Amino acid sequence: MQTDKFGFGTQIRKSPFFDATIRWGATEFSVYNHMYIPRDFGSTEQNFWNLINDAILCDVAVERQVEITGPDAATFMQMLTPRDLSKLSVVQCKYILVINADGGILNDPVLLRLAENHFWMSLADSDILLWAQGVAVNSGLDVKICEPDVSPLQLQGPKSGEIMTALFGERIMELRYYWLIEIELDGIPLVVSRTGWSSELGYEIYLRDGSLGDTLWEKIMAAGEPFGLKPGHTSSIRRIEGGMLSYHADADINTNPYELGLDRLVNLDIEAEFIGKAALSHIRDNGVNRKQVGLFIEGEPLSGPNTTFWPLIQRGKVVGKVTSAIYSPRLKQNIALAMVSTGCAKLGTKLEVSMSSKSVQATIVPKPFYDPKKKIASI
Amino acid sequence: MQTDKFGFGTQIRKSPFFDATIRWGATEFSVYNHMYIPRDFGSTEQNFWNLINDAILCDVAVERQVEITGPDAATFMQMLTPRDLSKLSVVQCKYILVINADGGILNDPVLLRLAENHFWMSLADSDILLWAQGVAVNSGLDVKICEPDVSPLQLQGPKSGEIMTALFGERIMELRYYWLIEIELDGIPLVVSRTGWSSELGYEIYLRDGSLGDTLWEKIMAAGEPFGLKPGHTSSIRRIEGGMLSYHADADINTNPYELGLDRLVNLDIEAEFIGKAALSHIRDNGVNRKQVGLFIEGEPLSGPNTTFWPLIQRGKVVGKVTSAIYSPRLKQNIALAMVSTGCAKLGTKLEVSMSSKSVQATIVPKPFYDPKKKIASI
To answer: Using one digit for the tens of pLDDT, what is the confidence trace for B21-33?
Structure first.
C-alpha cells in the first residue's frame, strides 16, 4: 500500500482528503503542521501550467485553524497581531503576522472573522495553537482557544470562478477578495473565502466535518471537469513569482516584518496593546540590518528548488542568503527570494550565489516577479 | 541528488548530521519539529537487531531544545510541568510532561538542568518554544527563552558504554542514568546525558555547534566500528516494546496524564503553582473515561506500523482505538498501544481490531511488552 511509504505510522496526521489525493495520483508528500500534504501529482511544472491556465484543487488541510471564541475574543485577537483589526468586519479576512515579544515572526496566517467574537487563524507551519493558549494563561481574558474540525481546500486558477458558480450558483460571484461566506454544498457544512496562496483568482473551501472529505473532493472534481480542473498542489513556482512567503524558508522567529518589507502589516499607532509593540517600535526607529530582495540567478535552469540556504557573496564576503529559488518556465528565468545586508540591497546589485558545486551570478530585481494585478498590496 | 526528493526546499530544516546520514545510507526521511529525520537505513528490522545486540547511532537533531535562562528560570520551569522539580539537581535530567490549562499534554520532553537557572527541554514533536514564550508574556517573570544551537545524537544499545569509553575515557562510566555532563570531544563542545528512546543502555550526545555535525558523526562512527556500531534510527519496534510514547500517535493535546497511567509525573501536592493544576486535580478526583492499554493482536505479522488509528470494537460498538502497532520480531508477536474506554481496559479483555481490509482479534496484556530492567519506572 502506497501510504505505508510515508513516515511514522500515526505520528503524522492524514488529511480528510488524503485518500482522495492518493486516488487522484498524488505521488509525493511532505509534512506541514504535523500533517501530510501532497507535493507532486507527476509534474510540478505541469501543475504550474494547470494553475495559471485553468484551475487546480489542492489539499491544504495542513492549514490548521486556530479558533478563538469567548467574550474577550476580539481583544485577545488584537493582542496577537500588530495589524489594526478595528475595521475588520464580520465575514472579512485579513493577512496578518503573529509576532512574539521580540518582534520575531511566528506565523503569517489568514485571519477569518466569522462573528464578532469568533476568529480563525488559517496557519502557516507552526503551532500557533500553543502560542495562543500560552499567551492566554496569564492574560486575564475570557477566551476559548482550540483547533476545530476544519480542513481547507484551495481551488485556484482563472477557471475557479466558473467552477465555484457551477457548485454554488451565481451568488458566489458576489464574494469579494478577502471576504468569506458560511455556506453548504449538498448539506456539507463549509466556509468559503476568496483567498489563496497562488496570486491567481482563487478560493479556499473550509470543510467543517472531516468525515466528509472524500465526498467534498469528488463533488468539486466532478463540477470542475468541464472546465479542465486538475488535482494539484500549492505551486512553489507561482508563489515565488508572486513574492509570497513560505514560513521557515523566507521568514522565521528570527525575522521581523521590516526586514521583509511588510511594514503595511504593522500598525504601531493604534491604541490597543499587542505583543511585540515595543520591540517593533524599536526596530522601526533604529532600522534593520538586512532586507528581503528579489533575485534573478544566471546560468542553467534550476532543476528544482534550493534545498539549502545558498550563501550570497560580495567581494569575498557573505552578505546574505537565498531563501527560496526556482526556475519559472513562464519567465524563462531562475528567480529567488533572498535576505541580504541592507548595504547590498539596492536594485541592480550583482551578487555571487554559492551553491554546493558551483558559483553563479545574480542580480537584485524588483519583486513580485509576476503580478499583473498587484493584488498582494490590497489585502 | 538524493536530497532533492525530500519536500519543500528550505521550508523544512536539515540537521547538522543530514549529509552524514545520507553518506551512511539513509534511504528515507520523515519530518519532526520542522526538520528531516532519517527513518530507514535499508531495513527497520535489521536496525532493531543492531540496537538490541550491538549499538546504533541515530540523528535525533529533531529533538530541538528549548532553553530557559534568567533569574526566574527555575520558577518559570516549574510553572510548565506538574512534575515536582524541587529536588532536580544541577546536571540531573527528568522525563516530564508539559501540560496546558485544561490538563492536556503538549509535549513529553526530557528536561536537563545545566545550572541553577539554566534548563533545556529536549522536545517531542510540538513547538514548545512558542508555548513557553507565550506563557512568559504576561507571567511577570524574568526569563529568556530561545532555541539554542544544540543538536542531539542518540548512541543506544548494549555496546554504547564501551563506545563511550573509547570516546571519552573511563570517567564517562560514572555518568548515572538520567544525569548529564558538559564535556568536549577533541574540542567539540557537547553535553552528554544517559538518556534515550530505546529502553536500552544508551546516551544522548548534544552537539553545541551545528557547524561540527559531520566531524562529530564521523568521530563516533570511527570509535564505534570495532564494537559493531551501525548508523540507525529510533526504533518503533523497540519503543513500542518498551511502552514508550510517541507524541501525536499515543498522546496529544486532548490526552491527559491519567489516561496514560502517568500519574507518577503529576505532583498535585506541591506548593508551587503550575499550569493545569486545577484541571488535573479535577481529573484525578473524577476519574477518566479511557485508559491506555497494551494489546497483543492476532493473525499474520503486521507488515509495518499502522498508518491510521484502528478502531477497537466490542460487541459491535467502538470502544477505543489502536494508536501504535507493530510486529516485534523478538517477541514474534504483533504488539500495540491503544486507548480504550475504562470499562473495557481490564487485562485479558478481548477486542476486535478493525483494519481497513479486515478485522482481527486482540487481547489486553500488561505493558511494557519487554522491559527486563524495569528502567522506565525509575526516571
So the answer is: 999 999 999 999 9
Q: How far apart are CA A120 and CA A112, in angstroms?
A: 5
Task: Give residue A199's pLDDT.
Answer: 81
- Residue B21's CB is within 10 A of a number of other CB atoms, namely 26
Reference A194, options A341, A307, A91; nearest CA is A91
Q: What is the pLDDT of residues B168-194, one digit of tens each?
A: 999 999 999 999 999 999 999 999 999
Q: Pairing state of beta strands B105-107 and B180-185?
A: unpaired
Q: Would A265 be classed as within a structural domain?
A: no
Spatial distance between the Cα atoms of B165 and B187, rounded to a whole number of angstroms: 17
Give me the residue from A134, A248, A309 closest to B34, CB to CB: A248
What is this model's ipTM? 0.95
What cell does B205 get? 550526545
Name, in order, each residue with C-beta under 8 angstroms of A266's C-beta and a sequence gap of 6 or more.
Answer: A82, A83, A97, A257, A258, A280, A284
The pLDDT value recorded for residue B371 is 73
pLDDT the model gives residue A31: 94
What is the domain count for chain B?
Answer: 3
Helix (H, G, I), strand (E, B), or coil: what is residue B46?
helix
Same domain, A26 and A139: no
E strand or H helix at B241, and its extent?
helix B236-241
Same-domain pairing of B59 and B69: no
CB-nearest to B134 from A132, A248, A309 is A132
A146, A174, A193 — which closes off a domain?
A146
Contacts of the segment B88-95: beta carbons below 8 A, 24+ positions apart = B88/B113, B89/B113, B90/B114, B90/B115, B90/B116, B91/B179, B91/B180, B91/B181, B91/B182, B92/B178, B92/B179, B92/B180, B93/B178, B93/B179, B93/B180, B93/B193, B93/B195, B93/B379, B94/B178, B94/B379, B95/B178, B95/B265, B95/B379
The verdict on pTM exceeding 0.90 is yes
Residue where a domain stops, chosen among A146, A181, A206: A146
Radius of gyration for chain A, computed over Cα atoms and rounded to the nearest angstrom = 21
Round to whole Å and give the CA distance between B148 and B249.
27
- Average pLDDT of chain A? 95
Query: Is residue B32 a part of any domain in this protein?
Result: yes
| Interior angle at CA A130, CA B239 and CA B311, nearest 5 | 45
Predicted local distance difference test score (pLDDT) of residue A3: 39
Q: What is the mean pLDDT of the segment spanning B219-241?
A: 97
The range of the structural domain enclosing residue B108 comes to: 65-146
A2 vs B329: which has the higher pLDDT:
B329
Question: Do residues B153 and B234 share a domain?
Answer: yes
Q: What is the mean pLDDT of chain B?
A: 95
Best of A137, A234, A275 to disrupt the B interface (most B CBs within 10 Å) is A137
The angle at the Cα of B60, spanning B177 to B96, to the nearest 5 degrees, equals 50
The amino acid occupying position A67 is E
Helix (H) or strand (E) holding B3: none
- CB–CB of A11 and B125 under 8 A? yes
DSSP three-state, residue A29: strand
Which CATH number does the domain housing residue B119 bear?
3.30.70.1400
Q: Which three cell numbers stand for residue B332?
A: 514474534
Q: How far apart are CA B328 and CA B335, in angstroms?
A: 7
Q: Is the pLDDT of residue A379 over 90?
A: no
Which of A34, A139, A306 is the closest to B248 by Cβ? A34
Instruction: Please report residues of B whose CB lies closer than 8 A to that of A13.
Output: 248
